[in-house]
Amino acid sequence: MTSIAFSVAGILLGIYALLLFGLFLIALVRGFRWRRQSEASAALVPEIREALVDYLSGSNDVTRLQSYVRNSRREIAEAMLSFQGTVGGNALDRLCELALTLTLVHDWVQEAHSWDVVRRRSAYARLAFVSISEACRHVAGDLLLQGLEDHDPEVRLWAGRSVVQSGSPKEIEAVFELAISQSLLMRILLTEALRRHAIRLCKHVVPEALRSSDSKRVLAVLDILVAWERAISIDNLRELLEHREKDVRLQALRLAPLVPLVPETRIAIVNALADKDAEVSMAAVLSAGRLQIAEALPALARMLRLAPAELARTAADALAEMPPRGWQALEEFSTSSNPVTAAAAAGALVRARQKAGL
Amino acid sequence: VSPLSLALQAVVLFLFAMGTVSFIAMLKGCFFLRRLARSTPRYDGNIILKSPLVSAVSVVVAIPDVSPESREFVDQLLELHFGKHELVLVLDGPTDAELAIWTEQFHLVPSARGGSHDIPSARVRGLYESRDPLRLVVVNKEAGGQADALNAGVNVALSPVIGLVDPLCEFEPTLLLSLIRPMLDDPARTVAVCGVMPPPVQTAAAATDALSGTGLPACPSPPPAQTAAAATDAPKSGPAPSYWAARFGELESLRLWLARGGAFAGWNLLLPVPGASMLVLRDAIVKMGGFRAGPLELFLHLHGQAHASGKQYRVAFVPEGVGHARVPRSVGELLQRNAHEDRDIAGALGHRKSIAGGIGAIGWGLPGIFCVRFVRPLLETAAYALAAAGWLMSLVDPALVGLVLLSTVGLGTVVSMAAVVLRELVQFRGSDPTRLARLFFATIPENLGYRQIRNLYLIAGFFQSAPEKQNRG
Fold first, then answer.
1. Which residues does chain B have within 8 Å of residue A229's beta carbon, measured at their own beta carbons?
2. What does pTM read for this prediction?
3. C-beta neighbour count of B292 within 10 angstroms
4. Which of A225, A233, B123, B388 is deepest in the core (most CB within 10 A)?
């Protein structure tokens, strides 16, 4: 019995080992192919880059590049993409035109329909690069807009970026919609691309989204506005500062210094100093300091005396932003019998005076 | 049939079952990691670096001494790239001389910053900040052990996310940028992130290249770009790594990456492994009452608490662009690393009563780890001894002795070979064929010699439960 078990186990393990050895051989062949390909690319890409530099600097001779196109389309695409972020204006237009002439754009459009997500990602990344050119966009057609609904997040990201570069206002609104409906990560990545359309979006799209009853949507819009760090006008900031959701209140307070100050906003910020949530009251202290809201002085002084160490330090820093009354308060508190209050007040006063060159 | 034969047959069955489960776990890990690689978008880390929407991170690290390795580790942590982060360095009961060394190295001055008392910890003697433009806070506290030091660090940390880095890991400065991604992708469900990857090709090549003069075969020279990368990745101090230690270490890392990383993440049972770096929500740590044994125990507690509350949660896994366990310089170092991990597991098991869900905090996960790390080595070692003795005394059929060898050496070799091949399936690009072949064939000596010694160390690691000052962040 044991001998049979030994034989069966031996045979089974042998089969497994052979199977794994077979897979290992396949991996080995793939490794060799990959190495050969990498070595060939490493040798070829500098030559292609050199030819591309010649072309971009004015030469109209594309025969050298056409000779590469026959066998090394991937390397040409790689070399072209390596100019991303380093060329602009006419040079970029010429590069896009070249991609079109060499029918690379057509290849990428084909690949963008691939079921293989890796190929599709790479195709969209390349199309995003050349989508600055009207002619390339024409070849891509609706593909970029379709990409906004792709199930792969990276494809959506590239599609969004390319649409933002040169899309119509409606298309840019679609990307904004994508940014506020997706994950925070996607929002962060698209926010940068949307920044240059901030003013136009703030006219209608942003106020409309901020009036939404869906707090997640409101929070997403606030996230984008905070990340833009641009002076903007918002009608309903007070409502947001008094929102039932803590996260919305927090982001609204962070946004407050970027929005033109009106009396009702000032009142809302002063009220937020007494918020039950320590994080919100901390954000309110920072906003009050940055906006130099004089009405907040008594509340800040109270916090400096009574609040926990970190909040007291922040309150002291906020007071330091409001000379002369804030400085007077700090001078008084720097002799307080409470060591936390005294240290926070003295420290903030020293830093403020140093900053003012006194 | 003698009782000895029966016992051996039972052990053999158990060992076959364990080997099969390990293989299935690695297969599951491979599929999970492949899916993860396909669904994870690549993007420019600079956007994350600059965005004000990304949470701040406080990296908390407990340092027990002033050894050059500890100081080098702190230097590396200070070079991390991130938008808003700080390093909270906790000195657990330093002597005046030790404090003076840290003060001199970082130009420390007393800080006006106050810590919270959210978690109980030993008395904090003082807080210091650097006069240099470093985002560093140093906590000088009375000795209380690793967990207590981490608690003191969390009390001082201001950020909503706490970072923990295993000092036994090597990492790139972009570590935090990679780790934060799951928290941005799904902030509502992600309570913690754990990241580890197998040693990258360059590091393994550097370990092999360092062997010139040892008489062992060396890899062909990598291209110049690879050599430069290897120079940064290779251990900066100490003797050159041993060829076999590097290979065996890589095989162990691969198996852990696939099974304890990929598969456990797929089942949402993820726990830290050697070389891992982690992010945990500060609120979650405070809610758990802080650390009691170390990061492993904390993660068990997180899982247990989340299971108990019935809420949707995940502990996310980052399998690339993070740190990896340091390439061991000798087989001895590798064995010690194993013993360290065993002590961490034993420490967590020792605190099982205070963990929500106890030993079942991650379902069958913890008992499974216990079986793999302790029961299997114990039974395997016993089986070798019994089979040898029984064979010599003619009490055991030679075929049974063969089965013992098949269930240990044979199955172990197949499992390690599978780890090498499955990694290739996870990656979208081919590996260096020479390195791949070396690793594949290193599975044979790994299971014919090293495995048996390792078993002894794993058993000893569990029995050595005496509290020890560990350099673990």
1. 52
2. 0.86
3. 20
4. A225
